[in-house]
Design a protein that fits this description.
The protein is an alpha/beta fold. The chain has a single domain, classed as P-loop containing nucleotide triphosphate hydrolases (Rossmann fold, 3-Layer(aba) Sandwich). It is built from five helices and nine strands. The chain has helices at about 15-30, 85-100, 115-130, 145-150, 165-175; strands at about 5-10, 35-45, 50-55, 60-65, 75, 80, 105-110, 130-140, 155-160. The chain has a nine-stranded mixed β-sheet with strand order 5-6-4-3-2-7-8-1-9, sandwiched between helices. Strand 7 (about 105-110), helix 3 (about 115-130) and strand 8 (about 130-140) form a beta-alpha-beta unit. The longest helix has 17 residues, at about 85-100. The chain is globular and about 45 Å long.
Length: about 180
């Protein structure tokens, strides 16, 4: 019988956290795991980052998380954050994943995502109830819920640039060996 297993991945911006989690998810799917949840992906135009999207791990469906140029939304640095997509799309995906017997992915637990109170509540519920979860945690955040997540995970992996592939394989092995 498998044990409860939550793995956190952290590291400085641009080190490959999303790449590692996305690759680990694909490896786990190939090994018969059901994986659900969200990824946060950069949106670039002509090489310039203009924002981020929330991606459904299962279907690839997406919604905007933040944009540089858009009006409205809560401001965080140069970005406008679409809290309604966190409150609705992201939170509902996570609620559905938690209700099933699947590995729940959350990329990322960071300042943009934490602007949503519903997302925060869902994260707290996930930290208490998820049987298997893979989270990326903002490297510099001292938000109480990020600190709570850092202590709740079974293992916290600090990623460095260039290690995404090796870390993805390590994560997949940990989950596979837990079954």
């Amino acid at each position: 019988m498998r044990q409860r297993l939550l793995i956190g991945v952290t590291g400085p911006p641009g080190c490959g956290k999303t790449t590692a989690v996305e690759r680990a998810s694909e490896l786990l799917k190939k090994n018969g795991f059901r994986v659900s949840g969200i990824l946060t992906r950069e949106v670039r135009v002509e090489g310039r980052r203009i924002g981020f999207d929330i991606i459904d791990v299962e279907t690839g469906a997406s919604r905007p998380l933040a944009r540089v140029s858009d009006e409205g939304g809560a401001r965080l640095g140069k970005y406008r954050v679409y809290k309604e997509n966190l409150d609705g799309f992201a939170t509902e995906l996570l609620r559905g994943a938690l209700a099933q017997d699947v590995l729940v992915v959350i990329d990322e637990v960071g300042p943009m995502e934490l602007m949503s109170q519903r997302f925060r509540q869902m994260l707290r519920q996930l930290l208490k109830e998820a049987k298997e979860s893979l989270l990326t945690l903002h490297y510099y955040s001292r938000d109480p819920i990020v600190l709570e997540a850092r202590t709740a995970v079974s293992e916290l992996i600090e990623l460095r640039r260039g290690e995404a592939v090796a870390v993805a394989e390590r994560i997949a092995k940990i989950f596979i060996n837990n079954r």
